[in-house]
Amino acid sequence: PVDILGIGNAIVDVLARTEDDFLIANQLAKGSMRLIDEVEAERLYQAMGPATVISGGSAANTTVGVASLGGKASFIGKVRQDSLGKAFTHDIRAIGVGFETAHAEEGPATARSFILVTPDGERTMNTYLGACQNLGPADIDPHTVQAAAITYLEGYLWDPPAAKAAFRKAADLAHAAGRKVSITLSDSFCVDRYRDEFRALITDGTIDLLLANEHELKSLYTTSDFDSAQS
Question: Does 208 score more than 90 pLDDT?
Answer without folding.
Answer: yes
